[in-house]
Specification:
The structure is a single chain. The protein has 4 helices and 5 strands; from the N terminus they run ααββαβββα. Strands 1, 2, 3, 4 and 5 form a 5-stranded mixed β-sheet that branches. It is elongated.
Length: 174
């Protein structure tokens, strides 16, 4: 019995000793490395700037980047755009991109609603790659594109939204 009490006392004492002894120790990784100079604060970020990417690695919406992306979309094999179509100008206003095409784009109005829909989907998908671009509109030589199928002049979303899908479903039911 005396041996059990002695063993228990030694175990309690050793535990207390280890706890007290280690509480004042610092591990080498806890010590901050000395720095030569303080790091300056990062520059102020304007999240309303259309060139601001919302996540690291996402493309920023500069006019040149948009022009390049649209040129790539127009040049794809079997692209749904009239031959000879090219982007004359692009402007950014807050979250809206206005794409101004040459007069060749007007031929799209006579290519059928399906082709026009494919062209619009292609442009929407191209601009949706830029997180700061929410809407787009299309003009031809600085004037509204005249289409019987779609209003390209009023800014429309470049992404499908749940609200737009709900509206589309209710329109189809009526």
């Amino acid at each position: 019995m005396r041996l059990r009490n002695y063993s228990a006392a030694i175990a309690v004492g050793a535990t207390l000793f280890l706890m007290h002894g280690l509480s004042g120790c610092q591990m080498a990784s806890d010590t901050p490395a000395p720095s030569a100079a303080p790091t300056p604060p990062p520059p102020a970020i304007d999240k309303t700037d259309p060139t601001f990417p919302t996540k690291p690695g996402e493309p920023s919406a500069s006019v040149d980047a948009i022009k390049d992306a649209v040129a790539d979309a127009l040049a794809r094999p079997n692209a749904p755009f009239p031959e000879g179509t090219h982007l004359e100008n692009c402007t950014l206003d807050a979250d809206t991109a206005t794409l101004d095409f040459n007069a060749k784009f007007n031929a799209l109005a006579n290519m059928g609603e399906s082709t026009e829909s494919l062209a619009q989907k292609s442009l929407r998908a191209t601009l949706a790659k830029f997180p700061s671009i929410q809407k787009m509109r299309v003009t031809v030589s600085g004037k509204p594109f005249d289409s019987q199928a779609t209003d390209w002049n009023t800014p429309f979303s470049v992404r499908d939204t749940p609200d737009a899908a709900d509206q589309s479903s209710s329109d189809q039911r009526q």
